[in-house]
């Protein structure tokens, strides 16, 4: 605030040119403050936030950086992971973040960084915490980040991949259906 | 001020209830979910933004890049506090006020759209090894997963036994909304066996497959009692094809065995005679009309016929098909019987102005002299004679063999490439009969005429390129070729991979291939 006041003073004194130069030189990177449903606060660059189509549209609609923005339905843990992902991938041209290119590259494999990223969403036994994966997937869906949605759904599929039905039910805490219902499903 | 309960998975409860209730309502609901979500988030976002002024003092703004130190312990269990959102929109408010029973808090649910994406990542029937085991498991996990997994299971269907085709036929043939939905879900259907009775039943339900894009049937015969009739595919396939053409307007690719429809080759089956008559009638009708293609909306652009011609002059089913389906983009012909090469009359080639992909394998003849007259340059050309059979193809009347039949020559191919080869991305001339000198001539010509080429298959057991080792001299031509075709990635050399092993590849060759960024089958990646 003090700095801005100085600039205003400068321009008043007929040194607007210098003021503008200084302004463009020291122009701070546009940042967005996000507050999660559990009152965690994060500050992110506009470029990082724009990985999320939700924020991108919002920033376009509001024509500028709004004051601290409440992100409902996303926890601090999820948003931290999302920011970690977006910070890495916002400069990564190899990793598509739109649905069309993701669809056209269906046989894409999970990259090295992404693999580590998913591996870090684990518990102390080294197993992926499926509820963390699911929570993060939903948060990514909420914030509309196609690249992260792809990564998360792929990781969940990998969790399901070689497992028998009973184990899948156990992982997702799906109650075992009644015999009759099971019969209907089998059919 | 409205209070919105957020359950343990971070989704508002009303959303979850909505998903439960619409369970298997299908694509329409699901595809709009994204849109709705977006709109709602925008609203709630703005509402929250508007409300933050009053709560500004509750948190530190600006420089809290780091997460709260105890966030991990707080969120591992993923228990979320209640969120109070001011001015949540009226509809949400009224729903969240309604009494509801909380579901099992530990149960993990995903919205249908996300569930669909998860299942997309599981191997379907196109992956032969998996046999859809994962998808079939997920389909029986619970009622919420069932419709989504079924949708994926039924999109690409491979039936490989009479039992499977019968259960497929029974399922979609029994009527009702769910059967209709499953039937319209089918996009590609491949049959990898041939069974007369099963096919007969199948023909009766074909009309339900309205969304079908690709139909392919092969003949890996299962328990067929009369070996002599193995290749005499008669009325059933023609009935199926007719039904497909009549009732599947979106069909794009049709891959069928060559039908044989004459009473002589069919034998004495009374049912088949009636089928045959229908076919003949429709053929004669089309002749009298002079134009079968009355429906301009056909999507069918690919036709593949495999098998053998049964006797001379019996090409009318193929002719009928070619005339019926409209301008083809893709044409594949395959036959392994040198006595009866599969043929399409020369006149038909002129009616294929849009042809871009031509694949001929084995004993195929007659179409190709007129290929040079097609309108556009080809994108893919396969002229491969499987199992070392004579490939009788010609690219001009001057290339005639001793029996005055056109033969496939290096000069003919080069002439064709200069005229119609500029768009080729794949060229397969495996099992050709060229001498090494002629083949290298062709390769030079390819380098000059096909700048977009990505795949080149020259594999042949007849070439003199045999040897125990691959020295630089055998791949040196690639350097020039790569200059002309910068996109070239995959090459099969003019050797027989069945005989030669790639164990004696020299380091220089591997280095050259790495430099050129070209993979050679069984050499770069043995």
Can you describe this structure?
- The complex is a heterodimer of chains A (187) and B (526).
- Chain A is mainly alpha-helical.
- Chain A has helices spanning 2-12, 16-25, 46-49, 53-62, 76-89, 99-104, 112-119, 130-143, 146-160, 165-171, 179-186; strands at 31-36, 41-45, 69-71.
- Chain A has a single domain, classed as Potassium Channel Kv1.1, Chain A.
- Chain A has 11 helices and 3 strands.
- Chain A has a 3-stranded mixed sheet with strand order 2-1-3.
- Chain B has a domain at 150-223 and 231-253.
- Helices cover 39% and strands 11% of the residues of chain B.
- Chain B has helices spanning 13-22, 27-55, 71-75, 90-97, 112-120, 133-139, 145-153, 162-173, 177-185, 196-205, 235-247, 263-266, 270-289, 316-325, 346-350, 410-420, 436-449, 472-475, 477-484, 507-516; strands spanning 2-4, 83-85, 156-159, 188-191, 214-217, 253-257, 302-306, 330-335, 342-343, 357-362, 364-365, 380-384, 426-428, 455-457, 490-492, 519-520.
- Residues 1-105, 220-234, 260-296, 310-314 and 386-406 of chain B have low confidence and may be disordered.
Layout of strands and helices, then pairs:
The complex is a heterodimer of chains A (187) and B (526).
Chain A: H1 2-12, H2 16-25, E1 31-36, E2 41-45, H3 46-49, H4 53-62, E3 69-71, H5 76-89, H6 99-104, H7 112-119, H8 130-143, H9 146-160, H10 165-171, H11 179-186
Parallel strand pairs in A: 1-3
Antiparallel strand pairs in A: 1-2
Helix pairs in contact in A: 1-2, 5-8, 8-9
Chain B: E1 2-4, H1 13-22, H2 27-55, H3 71-75, E2 83-85, H4 90-97, H5 112-120, H6 133-139, H7 145-153, E3 156-159, H8 162-173, H9 177-185, E4 188-191, H10 196-205, E5 214-217, H11 235-247, E6 253-257, H12 263-266, H13 270-289, E7 302-306, H14 316-325, E8 330-335, E9 342-343, H15 346-350, E10 357-362, E11 364-365, E12 380-384, H16 410-420, E13 426-428, H17 436-449, E14 455-457, H18 472-475, H19 477-484, E15 490-492, H20 507-516, E16 519-520
Parallel strand pairs in B: 3-4, 4-5, 5-6, 6-7, 7-8, 8-10, 9-11, 10-12, 12-13, 13-14, 14-15, 15-16
Antiparallel strand pairs in B: 1-2
Helix pairs in contact in B: 5-7, 6-7, 8-10, 10-11, 11-13, 16-17, 17-19
